[in-house]
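Figure 3 (text version): structure tokens given as input.
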């Protein structure tokens, strides 16, 4: 595994572990909250599966969800944080309890002629923006206040986020020239 990828995943692991510590400390005072799901090591606040069914706190979990990919990107200043609060309140009022959220974009500039979203979480291989992580942290904290859940995706195949092509480029598996042209579907597979 490339060193930058290893650093990235270690950082994400540490970040998510740090998010669990407050919940686990609080759970010590509540024995029911300290229980684990039957077939997993996940805390009860995490969604698990059993026999093809989503499970939350030992019960079937049903939800209404939306793709809120940009949430962590806009939560980095006062105006963005207020926008997050307003939008989360609106979504919650409509019954939405589950959000798909992008952890962050990779790289800078255009890729395949498509501008990337900014600001990026990782501008260069192994170089991370702590400000972007603070924005994601703010979003997750605000979601927690509303008892909303997140499905966090760490990369994808869309040019606008950098995605897998950027990782392939950073690891020397595709050249810079490949990033300058629109790839066919067969080339993207």
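Below: residues designed for each position.
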């Amino acid at each position: 595994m490339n060193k930058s990828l290893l650093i990235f995943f270690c950082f994400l692991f540490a970040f998510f572990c740090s998010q669990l510590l407050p919940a686990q400390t609080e759970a010590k005072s509540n024995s029911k909250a300290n229980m684990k799901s039957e077939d997993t090591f996940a805390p009860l606040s995490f969604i698990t599966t059993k026999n093809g069914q989503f499970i939350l706190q030992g019960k079937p979990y049903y939800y209404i969800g939306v793709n809120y990919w940009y949430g962590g990107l806009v939560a980095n200043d006062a105006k963005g944080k207020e926008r997050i609060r307003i939008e989360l309140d609106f979504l919650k009022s409509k019954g939405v309890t589950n959000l798909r959220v992008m952890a962050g974009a990779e790289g800078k500039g255009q890729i395949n002629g498509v501008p990337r979203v900014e600001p990026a979480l990782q501008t260069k291989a192994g170089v991370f923006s702590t400000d972007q992580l603070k924005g994601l942290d703010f979003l997750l904290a605000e979601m927690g206040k509303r008892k909303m859940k997140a499905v966090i995706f760490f990369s994808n195949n869309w040019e606008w986020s950098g995605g897998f092509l950027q990782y392939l480029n950073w690891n020397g598996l595709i050249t810079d020239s490949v990033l300058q042209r629109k790839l066919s579907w067969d080339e993207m597979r």
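Confidence is low (pLDDT under 50) at residues 4-40.
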